[in-house]
Write a structure and sequence with these properties.
mainly alpha, two-stranded antiparallel ribbon, flat, three-stranded parallel sheet, 7 strands, Rossmann fold
């Protein structure tokens, strides 16, 4: 590859501007189009295009992207002349695109085209070996931005690293949480030295942050069921439903939630239709996966 690496966050592409940003447009194609725009796909010609959060693309953009992948050409917005771009594609998403296809939110043909090789990246909390090198990376980044060397003293680094790699460190925001934590420590470090006291304060702050996030995610069945439905639930049924809804909200798809909820009974039954079983359970309470 001799071209550019082009990184696109599809979650930022909304409305009429999405197609224009990706595929370009010609002057006068829409209000405000005062000059031609090449678009990001043409910027990636002979190079690598990374579409992060590809599951956020709209239906029209998905159709245009499929043509561009298969035929290496596409029509810019408002143009009747084909544009050409020969790019390699990597796509990232935090969604279960297979389930998105089943639920009609992602094109089956596009999914089949991009799903040649798939790699699932575990959350940061499950990769403690990646934390230390990224702490060093973020420290170097802050040293450059602050125009001074920023570092832990020996005891402070050991204390922070011990916490950061322990089960107590949830890292719910993954690398964003870690980056923000190092930024805060670097900003507060007197003379660029991160001390034991600063680390202790930061560990307490992170613990409270993650505890508050967990509290805010508590299941509130009164937002899902009517007063009459709640009154008809036994305590056992209510507690069971709360547990099921909690798992559903933590999972990216109906199938993933079904696998977690019915793991033991699945092996005993020899059946794998967990999605249907979960769907029927939710239906007993008038609930659907999309409403959770």
């Amino acid at each position: 590859m001799s071209g550019n690496f082009v990184d696109v966050n599809c979650a930022t592409l909304r409305g009429d501007g999405a197609a224009s940003a990706l595929f370009g447009h010609v002057k006068g194609a829409f209000t405000g189009a005062q000059q031609d725009r090449g678009g990001l796909l043409r910027s990636a010609d002979k190079g690598l295009l990374f579409l992060d959060e590809i599951g956020e693309l709209g239906e029209d953009e998905q159709a245009m992207l499929l043509k561009a992948i298969e035929e290496k050409n596409f029509y810019p917005v408002g143009s009747d002349k084909l544009a050409v771009s020969d790019f390699q594609l990597i796509a990232g998403t935090n969604r279960d695109l297979g389930q998105e296809v089943l639920e009609g939110r992602f094109r089956e043909d596009l999914y089949a085209r991009i799903n040649l090789w798939s790699y699932e990246l575990p959350p940061l909390a499950h990769r403690p070996e990646d934390i230390a090198p990224n702490i060093d990376y973020f420290l170097a980044q802050q040293s450059t931005e602050l125009s001074r060397k920023v570092s832990f003293n020996k005891e402070a680094r050991q204390k922070y690293l011990q916490f950061a790699t322990s089960p107590a460190a949830k890292w719910l925001g993954n690398f964003r949480d870690l980056s923000a934590s190092i930024l805060r420590l670097s900003t507060l470090a007197d003379g660029g030295r991160i001390t034991d006291r600063l680390v202790e304060q930061e560990i307490m702050r992170l613990g409270k942050l993650w505890a508050n996030q967990a509290d805010n995610s508590d299941i509130q069945l009164n937002n899902l069921l009517s007063a009459e439905q709640l009154a008809a639930l036994d305590l056992f049924d209510r507690m069971q439903l709360e547990a099921v809804v909690k798992v559903c909200r933590e999972c990216k798809s109906l199938s993933e939630a079904g696998r977690q909820l019915f793991a033991v009974s699945r092996s005993q039954r020899g059946s794998t239709n967990d999605s249907d079983r979960l769907r029927k359970y939710l239906a007993k309470f008038g609930l659907e996966w999309g409403s959770l």
